[in-house]
Amino acid sequence: MSLRTPEADSNQQAAWIAFSRLEQRHTMAMEHPTIVSLLGYTDADHFLSATEKCLFATVDEILPLILNSNIAPTMTAREICCAYFLKRQNVFSMSVRNHSTHYQTIRNYLPNNSPLHFYSIYLECRRTNHQGHAGETAELLSAFRVDVPVLEAGVMSIWCETLFDFVEAEADFLIGNFKSAHEKLTRVISTASGLNFGCANRSQFRFANLLRESGQPDLALQIWQDGDMRNRLVHTCDWTTLAVNYLNAAQCALDSKLSDIARAELEASSELIPDVSTRDSRLQGYQYLREGELATLDERYEDGERLLRQALDFFRSIDPPCHEGLIETKIALGTYALFQDDLRMAWAIIRSLIEEAGDRGCFPMRSRALLLQTWFFISSDPPTRVAFDNVLERIHMIQNPALMMHALGNLLSYAVNHLDESDRDHLLHRIRGLKGMLEESCYEQLYEQHVANRFAPAMEERFERKFEENDPETAMGPA
Question: In the chain, what percentage of residues exceed pLDDT 90?
């Protein structure tokens, strides 16, 4: 006997609009008591109790829950409960494979026109990005769109496209197409902010990540320190996100060597960490890591090494271990060894880190380790030509075009002093190839920082002539 597809009730649109703007259960209960009532719940506590059960339910437990009229009194309540079932307390605690199993378990118990179907696709794409398969997201999304029910023009259809744009932008960012990510995130932020979607903050955060990774930590810091955003997080009691906000602001301040700002942000995060780390234990490790980096920046090297090793031990001890944090901490220790002029130790640490990061699928950290390896070529005792060729052969694994520009600039400095003109020309050609991956003003800023400002005007002028000779558009002359 086939299962009859259920029909939506009259409150579907209103409830999902509220969900699109809030998402968090406690905020929804507090700010939309009327919606809670329309869903069939007696009060906020009833709503929170029911949705919490679904939030933590297993695949075997969910159907009895959503078919229970006390848990899901109406069809729209069932849809919202299923949204929390798929979202989980931490989006990234579920694998793509498990997500698919969870969704297939509930999909036939929901109306065909439920926004839950496209919300599920959005969550699956986010998990795909997070698990290191961002290169597959555009193709997956294209295939998924065929299965998404056609929505009437309105808030829900706009929310759907905004979520899909966001995961595409996130994927572009992760694979190193910063220019496309910048364009899409700008569009998403405009739409999400204008319609007050809950993903507006998430989009701003990802945009701040993009700016930092693009070598613009000062602009990223402005976003993390935005007073309105922080007030919203306080208003919604989203203490975990606020702690992450402070930690990210501290990281950007450290990038810009702004010790006082970094210290203030870390003091703010430290007040929240004891509570929020019970929900996301990794945050305590990142607190140790940033404090260690601050101590190193302030030339308190003994404190810096102690805190970095404390972070290392912490990331190892949690279950499951945080490999991304582990590798980032090891990179910080490698940087510390460089500061101590222990080049042999630093080289050994960084070489092993490149392999470990690749094996663990921590590709952003592998990119940073590869960049750090190029610093040896601008030291007072640079490696051999053989080492240069080895690094150049592996440098394509840097997926971040801003870091690639920095790395190529370091190698170009070595080539100018130690290698032939053909080697310099090869590096210049690769630098020019990054133009299509970076937003124009960002490319110009990075080029000035890592190429133009490093060399005497005459040398930089020769580089520009080489660019023009090898550029098909300028080489052809006027039409």
Answer: 66
SS3 sequence, the chain? CCCCCCCCCCCHHHHHHHHHHHCCHHHHHHHCHHHHHHCCCCCHHHHHHHHHHHHCCCHHHHHHHHCCCCCCCCHHHHHHHHHHHHHCCCHHHCCHHHHHHHHHHHHHHCCCCCCHHHHHHHHHHHHHHHCCCHHHHHHHHHHHHHHCCCCCCCHHHHHHHHHHHHHHHHHHHHHCCHHHHHHHHHHHHHHHHHCCCCHHHHHHHHHHHHHHHCCCHHHHHHHHCCHHHHHHHHHCCCHHHHHHHHHHHHHHHHHCCCHHHHHHHHHHHHHHHHHHCCCCCHHHHHHHHHHHHHHHHCCCHHHHHHHHHHHHHHHHHCCCCCHHHHHHHHHHHHHHHHHCCCHHHHHHHHHHHHHHHHHHCCHHHHHHHHHHHHHHHHCCCCCCHHHHHHHHHHHHHCCCHHHHHHHHHHHHHHHHHHCCHHHHHHHHHHHHHHHHHCCHHHHHHHHHHHCHHHCCHHHHHHHHHHHHHHCHHHHCCCC
Phi-psi region of 88 (alpha: psi -120 to 50; beta: other; left: phi over 0): left
Identify the pLDDT of residue 360.
86
Section 214-240 average pLDDT: 91
Query: Residue 22 has what pLDDT?
Result: 85
Question: Token pair 């601050």 is at which residue?
Answer: 294
pTM score: 0.84
**Interval 105-125 mean pLDDT:** 94
In angstroms, the CA 158 to CA 283 distance is 34
Note the Cα 159 to chain centre separation in Å. Answer: 21
Say yes or no: domain 214-321 is CATH 1.25.40. Answer: yes
> Do residues 192 and 200 lie in contact, with contact meaning Cβ atoms separated by under 8 Å?
yes
Write the CB contacts of 267 (distance below 8 Å, at least 6 apart in sequence). Answer: none
Q: Measured between alpha carbons, how far is 324 from 289 in angstroms, rounded to an integer?
A: 12
Tens-place pLDDT, residues 403-446: 999 999 999 999 988 999 899 899 999 999 999 999 999 999 99
Furthest CA-CA distance within the chain: 82
Residue 297: count of CB within 10 angstroms of its CB: 17
Structure tokens at 27: 């905020």
Query: 398: pLDDT confidence band, cut at 50, 70 and 90?
Result: very high
Write down how long the chain is. 479
Query: What token pair was written down for 38?
Result: 């329309």
Q: In a 10 Å sphere around its CB, with 0-12 CB exposed, 13-18 middle and 19+ buried, how is residue 245 labelled?
A: buried
Angle at 138 between CA 132 and CA 143, to 5 degrees: 115
Mean pLDDT of 360-373: 90
